[in-house]
Predict the structure.
Amino acid sequence: MNTPHPDADTPRDLVGIGVGPSNLSLAALAHPLAEIDAVFYEQRPRFDWHPGLLLDGARIQVPFLADLVTLADPTSPWTFLNYLKTHHRLYPFYFAERFHIQRAEYDAYCRWVADQLPGLHFRHQVDSVRWNPERDVFEVDYTQLDTAGEAEALGRTHTRNVVIGIGTTPHIPDPLRPLADAPGVPVLHADDYLTHRDTLLTAGHITVVGSGQSGAEVFLDLLRHRPTGHERLHWIGRTEAFAPMEYSKLGLEHFTPDYTRYFHALPENVRDRLLAGQWQLHKGIDADTLAAIHDELYRRTLHGGWPDTVLTPGVTVRTAGRISTTQIELHLEHTQQNTRSRLTTDAVILATGHREHTLDRILAGLDPYIRRDNSERPRIDAHFRLVLDPSITATGCNVHVQNAERHTHGVGAPDLGLAAWRSATILNALTEKETYPLPTRTAFTTFGLEQPQPSPRVPTARQAPTLTPLVDRR
């Protein structure tokens, strides 16, 4: 639904760039706030959440309470439970006793919200964000796309605040990047798996690269669709084991506002070191998925013999090359053994994760105003605002980011369970009041000897973020 702005010369309060779960959460929580005039632009034709990985039975790894709004406002009309009630499915869900819902159901729930919220403009590609010092507003330029994805019209919106929630992009390792775009042997990212599954299943030998959750789910799905004794599947990954995700109760407290505040207050070099060692908090595999894979493999041994599969962790792909129109060769290295080998395969599925979108293209016009850390990454304050030159922030205008702040806010940045809290934090800053009261404590763990506490008051929109000395780079 598109709502025209009543006065094109009047700046909006908020322009959201991207409509993924993060900004959809923000739009849902902003919807009842009469004082917030907001619009959101998304280049895709509709809401889609990793459609190529909506495998039958695959579940999201957070409880259903981690929907778009509940952990900030359980009375919102946009809760998952209200979605079930609206679709007359509340009792079936009650008896299903499922705390973790299927990924396809979460996608359908988000689309239900997106289809009803005003101010969401799909097929609108944001091209740039600039600062207009004469009007003290941001200028957001966009291209309206037709059904074929071609430019149809250009537009510009003025706004006092911008929230960037453009999500992540599929990561393809450098050794395989030339092959991914070449015709012939299918080499594709797991994000496109379902779209090409029928073609992949005709391949004689299939290799899955990546030892995280998506790699495990793709391998399991292939296993279930390949005949016993003729699986011809090879699953490799860089990690030292096909390891389960950290899912202990206290371990999960790394995905709380308490830990986010603790992490943000640490020095930059400490944050970077921590992130490198926390892969199992977010890159491990759900224990049920590992169990299902083992069950499938074990079932194939009941009448003797072993399945035609190879599962090898601790392996990296050094280089790769096409050896014919139907086959490629992967050059592998085992990090622990310090050995190398070659693997010939007919198809490759890259379950190699995602990377945060670089903000450089959209924010190129703001580059002179952005304060950066020692690694030239944007500095982001506790309220998810880019640290900009005071000539901008002193006017009450800010740029917030969602799911682009892992380097400043930790492993919870992309976590669905923190989306509502982060959106509420942003809206509290925009409205200059505690529009959504947030808890002061969320974890039993005290992560430091001096635990950072929430600010006793909401920062006003015209209060510039506190600038730490450049040598601190926090």
Remarks:
- The longest helix spans residues 103-116.
- The domain at 171-245+283-354 is CATH 3.50.50.60 (FAD/NAD(P)-binding domain).
- The chain has two domains: 14-167+357-431, 171-245+283-354.
- The radius of gyration is 24 Å.
